[in-house]
Structure formats: C-alpha cells, structure tokens
Amino acid sequence: MAEFSRIAVLGVGVLGSQIAYHTAFKGYDVVAYDVDDDAVGRARARLETLAERYEQEVAGAGIGARGAVGRIELTSDVARAVSEADLVIEAAPEQLSVKRRLFSAVGEMAPPRTVFATNTSAIPPSALMDSTGRPDRFLALHFSNLVWRHNIAEVMGTARTAPEVYASVVAFAASIGMVPIELKKEKPGYVLNSLLMPLLKAAGELLTDDIADPATVDDVWRIGTGADYGPFEMLDIVGLTTAHHIASHGDAKQREFARLIKERYLDKGRTGVETGEGFHTYPR
Amino acid sequence: MAEFSRIAVLGVGVLGSQIAYHTAFKGYDVVAYDVDDDAVGRARARLETLAERYEQEVAGAGIGARGAVGRIELTSDVARAVSEADLVIEAAPEQLSVKRRLFSAVGEMAPPRTVFATNTSAIPPSALMDSTGRPDRFLALHFSNLVWRHNIAEVMGTARTAPEVYASVVAFAASIGMVPIELKKEKPGYVLNSLLMPLLKAAGELLTDDIADPATVDDVWRIGTGADYGPFEMLDIVGLTTAHHIASHGDAKQREFARLIKERYLDKGRTGVETGEGFHTYPR
C-alpha cells in the first residue's frame, strides 16, 4: 500500500479549500493550485477563514489551526503543484472538458507513481480515466461540504482502478480523520447523493402539491429523524440556482418544482443561504 | 376553539401506550381502552416501562413520571372509555375494517361534542370519516415512535373536517409538547413517511445493486446528515417483516429488495431489532 506524504489539491473553491486545509491540518504537506493570481488570492482568504472556523468549531484545534495554513503552498503553476505530489486531488469546476484537460496536463507533469483522485460530484470517474494516462492509478475521492463535521470520504474506483491504489486512498482518507465510504462499483451520485436526491425530490413534491410549507416539512425531518437540516434547508445551502438546474432536468413533477423555485424565489433574488433569503430567511 | 381536558386513547399497543402515557404525563386525564383483560394487562406493563424510560430519558421528568401512570384509567369497556371524552385518539390495529367498526361503535357512544382522531399510518382518514357519524369532527393525528423524543404530531384533515376542529387538535398537540405539523390536505404517508419511503427505497437499491453494504450506507447517512439512524437501522427498527411486506408491493427493484430481505435475513430468523439481528446486530 502506497504511503502519501505530499498532497496536491487542484482547484481551491468551496470544497477544494476545505480539502486542502483539512489535509494540512492533519499534518500533510499540501500544494494547492488555482488558475491565476486572482484565484490564488481568493483561495488564501478561504484558507484563513477556515483556520478561524477550525479554531472555533473543532475541539482541540487550538494553535494548530493557524499552523495548518503555513503548511499549504499556494500556486498558479500546475506543474509546480504536482511535480512532487504523491496524491493529486482534483476539485476543479464540474465540467467534463475542464476536468479532462486538467488531468491530461497533469498526467504529463506528475511522476509516474502519483495517484490521481477526482472529487467530482456529477461526472463518473470512468468518463475521466483515459484522460489521466494512468487509469489504474485513478479513482474518485468525494468529500462532503463542511469536511470537519460531515467527515465522510466516498471512495469509488472504476473497473480499471488497481486494488492497491484503491486501498491506499482508503487509508489516506482514514489518516485525515474521514470515515472512508467504500463503494464496490461506480454509481452516479455515490451513496450520499443517491440517498439525498430522492428525499429532496419528495420534499419538492410536497411543496408543489401544496401539502405542507417548507418550514413544516423541515420541522418534520429534523425532529422526526434527528437530522441537522430539513430538505428545504439543504436546498438553501446548496443554492436555489443549482436546485433549479437539477429539478429542471427531472420528471414532470420535478419540472413543476423547478418553475416554482424560479417564480417564487429566483425571480425575487432569493437564491438561498448566500443571499440570506431562500425557502427560509438567514441567519435563522 | 374547543378545549380538551379528558382524553380517550383506543388501543394501547406500542404507539397507543406512548400517546396515552405522554398525554397523562402532560397533565391530562386519560382513559385508555384495549379489547380485553389480557390486552389491558399488557397495556399496564407498557405504561410502567414508559414511566421508567421517562425517568431516565426525559429531563426533569422526576416523580411526575410515576404520577402519570396514576392519571390513566385502563379499561376494556369502550363505552366507559369514551362516554365523557373530549377527544378520542384511535390507535387500533392498521386494518380498515377494525378501525371502521370501532369508529362506528364509539360514534354512537361518545357525546356529540367529542372530537375523533385517528393515528392511522396507512389508511387515509377519508376512508374512515363516514364511519364516525361526525366527519366534521374527525381528522388524523399522527404521532411518531418515541413521542417524547421525536415530538411531531402530524395533523391531517379530510375535505369535511371543520376548521375549528382542526385548530383545536393543533392546539391540543402543542399543549402536550408536540410540534404540530399542519398538512393542508390529505396525503398518503403524511409528511414524514412521504420523505422516508423514497429514502428507504434508494437505500434498498444500493444494496440490491451491490454498490455498498448496509453499514457503509448507514455511516454515510448518519455522518453526512446528522440523522440518528441510517436507513438500514431504520428498517431494523420498523422490523424486516414489515419492510419485506412493503417492498414486495413496490416496483421491480423493490421486489428484488424484498427477495433479498427474505433470503438473507427473514429465512434466517433475523427480523430486526426485536430479535437482535437484522441488517445489523443489536445492541450495537
């Protein structure tokens, strides 16, 4: 089983910054890449914010929370980011062409030993594997938002992922305090979204059918199951633009839900938690 | 809005005993009916067990937990149970003919002012309303297992329920510490099961498609959403006999899940939490 010590994270957006920060917080050397100086500047701000959150929210984080930022090298030079990496975790925008181009480039630049992982949500890793030039050393490693709290890492190989590579990534996930979620085969949406999507769909139907309002539905779910968030709160966190996009590609009921989201919320500038107004008003 | 002081609970099984006990614990006079002396004896044991659980699990329950049992009159005489009741909550077995016969009888015995509520899970209240002889004073009031913890009460009227009756039952639910969940119209499964069923269905598919095992799926759900239980733990609590029954009436994927439940679990005597063996082994 490979042992990793130097980790490259490609793309330092919302989740990429969490992956980079958390991995450094757990003691690894991290190089984080984003496309240009502006993006790198935003990445730096994200990492500082994460250090503050860890200080406040993660028991025993203490002084280590600031120290972690110091173990992350930020760069807009992708070759530099991957040239000595043992593991590359790609967290680039969710577009097939972007991810394929990126893997194609780093496939040339990284040492042959380097393992490649994609954090993709929607693109099956089998649609990316040939672009890496090393399908046997490639798989999906999928984190959930607020990695320090929802500490699961879904590990999903393709038919061509080598078993020892899969095992090494499972071990890496465990080493940074994640509960490794081992998928036996490729599945769109992994486990978490395979469970969440039907729940969110059912919640949308309760609203479009005028059975109950969002606050009522969320009360039921939180109190009835103990979950942190009800389905409409989850949609507010995801953002209603994304929720609308997904629903508009669904069945007739879902498209009705998409229209409702657009008319009652998006057209009024209510896009969810980010604007403070979605199905609910924030902070709650 | 009606004010209730005397409550009759018809059927003192798992949920009926919780409804009766909790209502008495909150200060109401309760008469609890079950069919014969044996059933009444079992009901008494259930109430004593609940008093112990409240002492241990409900903050500040203290001596009041035992006192509540004293405010519950147990009887196998249904006329006696309802003759002075302001509100009758039916929690009889989930069979249409049983419930209709019961409502038909108590419709004759109870004062005209008495409001009738059914705790039915699967039978729409509109299928019961005419049997009560007072459809305007009848609705569904649906509790969740472990009422002191999952303190939601779904209130669902029919097209014929009088608005003031609906409001009085909402107020009653709030007065016993429930969060009243107001459904605007009749919906099979209410809100909670409308959300839970698609989740449990998706979990079943992850298992039948051999994507991940039950422990993995449950880890994802608990950690990823903060819920108390993963979907397979929920099925173990419901009981695999019931889970099998429901799945065997579903689509092709669900029927495949039903076969899996039968072959891997039921045929080996693993029926869930009650036998200590289901998808998981208990106590966990």
Description of the molecule:
- The structure is a homodimer of 284-residue chains.
- Chain A has 284 residues and is an alpha/beta fold.
- Chain A folds into 2 domains: 177 residues, NAD(P)-binding Rossmann-like Domain (Rossmann fold, 3-Layer(aba) Sandwich); 83 residues, N-(1-d-carboxylethyl)-l-norvaline Dehydrogenase, domain 2 (Orthogonal Bundle), CATH 1.10.1040.10.
- Chain A contains 11 helices and 8 strands.
- An 8-stranded mixed beta sheet of chain A has the order 3-2-1-4-5-6-7-8.
- The first copy, chain A, is globular and about 55 Å long.
- At the A-B interface, β8, α7 and α8 of A face β8, α7 and α8 of B.
Secondary structure elements and their pairing?
Two copies of one chain form a homodimer.
Chain A: E1 6-10, H1 14-25, E2 29-33, H2 37-57, H3 64-70, E3 72-75, H4 78-82, E4 87-90, H5 96-109, E5 115-118, E6 138-143, E7 152-157, H6 163-175, E8 179-182, H7 192-208, H8 214-225, H9 231-238, H10 240-247, H11 252-264
Parallel strand pairs in A: 1-2, 1-4, 2-3, 4-5, 5-6, 7-8
Antiparallel strand pairs in A: 6-7
